[in-house]
Amino acid sequence: MAEITNILSRLEKIFEAVKLKYVVVGGIAVIHYGHVRGTQDIDIIIEEDQSKIYQFFGLLRDFDFNVMQDQVNMGYKEGTQISVFDNKSPMRLDIKIAHKKNEKDVLKNAIVKNILGCNLSIAPLEYVLIGKILYMGTIDDIPDSELLEYQDILDFLTIYHANKGNINMDLVYKKIGEIGLLSTLERLLSIDLKE
Amino acid sequence: MDFKSEEKKFNYLTRKELYSIRKEKLRTEIEAAKRLLQKKIEPIEIADNFFHNTIKIIEDGILSRNPYLTREDLYQRIVENFNIAENIKKQRTRGKNNWQK
Q1: Backbone dihedral region of A117: left (phi > 0), alpha (psi from -120 to 50 degrees) or beta?
Q2: For residue A135, what are the domain limits?
């Protein structure tokens, strides 16, 4: 079993045991929606539930992940990212406890999909696109000739065009409008790939 | 030889040309993604195999220079290599703080 499959399989067992709400976001979600690219981490957002969180990190240890307790404590208190290395491969988990509105939103809207034989909770395509725009922020300062040098922009354009027609764009516009980044969305959609 | 004559000799790409090349590459990526999705192939499986083989090549490279490394030390070396690559890539990452809004 290769590295990502192995990790996803262990995560499925852990989340099933602890009953903690979670959602897979980031690179793995981008790949799932069609953009095959390298990644060294699995980004996960988990619900803020103290009674389950410490059990969850305990189970990660039992399933061969290297958990550093100080990072967990800080992640819980301050909402910082908790990096957990895998003892069986060079990959890592980047875990965030949902504190912010956007994190809670994607967690609430997660969908369960069968991925490589594992039932996993993953961000819907629209939320992956929204997440990419959130990460980019405003891009007014980037000249056209440099736009395609950014990984987040390539991710967005690839999964947007590959899935065109199957995306709820009303939702994307609504959410992006709420956070004031419509200019970023419109600029990305205006890129003419044919010329 | 001054810089301009050197530039002519090697025929450097302009930013516009680079942009066109990147666009072409992106079009190919989109077509590849569409094909996978149409054929109902799980893209993570391909990425996983790619990652697995990449790791194998990196491991072989490190072990050929350091044959007595333990598995733990080997992973540590690979992670360090990844971190270097990631830090370089971060130069081209937009403000992560937007996620915190």
Answers
A1: left
A2: 125-189
* Interface touch B51/A134, C-beta < 8 Å: no
Question: Mutate which of A142, A145, A163, A184 to test chain B, going by most B C-beta atoms within 10 A?
Answer: A145
Degrees to nearest 5, angle at CA B87 with A179 and B47: 80
Q: How far is A132 from chain B (nearest CA, A)?
A: 9
Residue numbers in A near B61 (CB within 8 A) = none
| A127-154 pLDDT, tens digit each | 999 999 999 999 999 998 899 989 999 9
B98 domain residue, yes or no:
no
Model pTM?
0.89
Look at the block and give the residue holding tokens 């969850």: A56
Contact indicator for A158, B29 with CB cutoff of 8 Å: yes
In a 3-state reduction of DSSP, which class is residue A100? coil
Domain span at residue B49 reads: 42-91
- Give domain status of residue B99, yes or no: no
ipTM: 0.88
Mutation target to probe the B interface, by most B beta carbons within 10 A, among A6, A24, A36 is: A36
**Are the CB atoms for A36 and B35 separated by under 8 Å?**
no
Task: Say if B55 falls within a structural domain.
Answer: yes
Residue B61 sits in the same domain as residue B86: yes
The total domain count for chain A is: 2
Query: Chain-wide mean pLDDT for chain B?
Result: 83
- Structural domain contains residue B68: yes
